[in-house]
Amino acid sequence: MDQGVRRWRPRMGRVAVALLVAGATAVAGVTTQAQESAAEPVDSFYLPPAQIPHEPGAIVKTAPMTLLATPPTEKGWPGSAQHVMYTSRLQNGDPVAVTGTFIEPPGPWLGAGPRPTVVIAPGTSGQGDRCAMSKAFSAGMSVHTHPSLGVSANQELPSSAVWSELGARVLVTDYIGLGTPGIHTYANRIESAHAVLDGARAANKLAGAGPETPLVLWGYSQGGGATAAATEMQPDYAPELNLKGTWAGGPVADLVAILEQIDGALIGGAIGFAVNGMLARYPELQSAIDKVISPAGRDMLATLSDACIADLITQHPFLKTSSLTVDGRSLTEHLRELPEAAPVLAELRVGGLTPAAPVLITSGRNDDTVPYGQARALAEQWCDKGATVTFRTNELPPILPGTTIPNHFGPELMDGFGPDSAVTYLLERLADKPVTGCSFD
Asked: Which residue ranges run through the membrane (predicted)?
C-alpha cells in the first residue's frame, strides 16, 4: 500500500468529526449572520476590471481569505487561503473572469512524488451570484436576506479539508457566472471544463509551480460532470497540464436523463438552472421555448436564475415543470421533442471525446437525482474509445426516493471518503501506480 494512503486513513476519522463540529457551529450562527448581512455592501472583488488578460488561467487579482468554520488539526489546517479571480473562456472562446478559493496547505505533502495541485469542482450550489462557493468558504456558509432569507453552504469543506490535510494545494472554482457578471451556465460541458482546467493553470501560477506539477481533479454531481468534461477536453484545451487522474462522482453527463429524473423531485427547480444556462448560450432555443412556456413559467425561470440550491428545497420543493407550460406537459418532454433543442443537448453531453488520464467514475445504483444509467453509459463510451476507466457502483438501497439527500449525497460521502475511496484512487495515481484498461464493479 502506498505510504500516502497509509498515512491518510487514520486521519479520516478525526477530520470527519471536525467537519461535523464545524457544520454545527456554522448552523448555530445563521441568525446572527443574517441580521448582520443586511448592512453589508456588495463584495466588489467579484467585479472584474474593464480589461482582463486573454491568456487562459492568468491571475486577474487576489485577496486574503480567512477560513473560520474549518476543522482544526495537528497540522494547523487550513493554511493560507486566497480569494482569486482568474481568466477562462466562454463557449465561443471569448475571455471571461472566474473566481475561486485557493488554499496553500499547512504542512508537507504526505503522498508520493511532488506536491500536487487538486482542483475541486463543486456540486450544485445554485444560479444566483450569492451562491458562489467562495462566498461560503469564510464562515462555512453564506447567509442572504434578498430576495428572501436563505443560506448557501460550503459543500466542499470536507474535500478541501482532506486534501489540504494531506498537503496538496487546492483550488475550488466558482464556475463561470457564479459571483461574477453574467448567468451561470449550469451543467454546460464546455464552460465547466474551461473553468476547471484554467483553475489548475491559475493555481500553479499562484504557487509558483510549473505545468509539470502533478494534477488531479475532484468533483461530484455537477462537479462530477465538470471534472469528466475537463478530463476529456484536457488533451486539446490544456495539453501542458500533467493530469494524473480524475474522480467524476455521480457525474452530470446526459442532461436529458437527469432533467427527466428530477422533474417533480425535491430539487426539481434545478431544471430551471439548466434551461437558463442553455438559453444564454443558444439564443436560437429561446423562440422554441417561448412557444411552450407559460407566463408563470417565465416568471419561475427568472426566479430560479437568482436562486441557491437551499432556496429550491425551502421555497420551491418538488417542482413539476408541467406547471410551467401552456399545455400542462412537462418542460422536459418538450425539450425531448423540440428540433431546436436536440443539437444543444447533444453538444452538452459528456462522452464524445477521449480522456488521456485515468478516470474513476462512481454512481449510486439507486441515485434519485443523477441517474446511474447515464453515468455507466459514460464509462462505457470512454472505454470503447480506449480510455482508462474504473467504474464503481454504490449499492446503497433506496431511502426516501426523490428527496436527494440519502441516495445522492450518501454515495458522495461513501465513495469519496470511505474505504477504497476516491481519495485512495487519486493517491495511487499520484504515486504512478499502474492502472490500465477498464473495470466495472
From this structure: none
Torsion sign (Cα): 50, 129, 81, 240: negative
Same domain, 194 and 232: yes
The stretches of 208-254 forming alpha helices (DSSP H) are: 222-237
Helices 157-166 and 3-28 cross at an angle (nearest 10°) of 140
Per-residue CA distances from 201 to 87, 206, 404 (Å): 10, 9, 33
By three-state DSSP, how is residue 408 classified?
Answer: helix
pLDDT digit string (tens) for 351-388? Answer: 999 999 999 999 999 999 999 999 999 999 999 999 99
Measured in degrees and rounded to the nearest 5, phi and psi for residue 293 equal: -95, 145
* pTM across the whole model: 0.91
pLDDT of 13 strictly over 60: no
On whether residue 43 sits in a domain, the answer given is no
Beta strands in 75-213 (DSSP E): 80-89, 95-104, 117-121, 141-144, 150-153, 169-173
**Count of CB atoms situated within 10 Å of the CB of 136:** 26
pLDDT in tens, 211-245: 999 999 999 999 999 999 999 999 999 999 999 99
pLDDT at 128 over 70: yes
